[in-house]
Design goal:
84% helix; mainly alpha
């Protein structure tokens, strides 16, 4: 995955998490799953930039 693709996925996931948080509790499974996915993408991006 290229750095630009990874940035796009991060942004998409962030938007998804925000959208989910409008219709679900922040502690709901959907929001937490999205947050975990975003964390993983951010960790991957950080490794990419080191």
């Amino acid at each position: 995955m290229t750095k630009n693709n990874l940035r796009e996925k991060i942004e998409e996931c962030r938007e998804e998490m925000i959208t989910l948080s409008f219709t679900n509790d922040l502690t709901s499974e959907a929001v937490i799953s999205s947050s975990i996915k975003l964390d993983q993408l951010l960790n991957e991006y950080q490794r990419y930039t080191q």
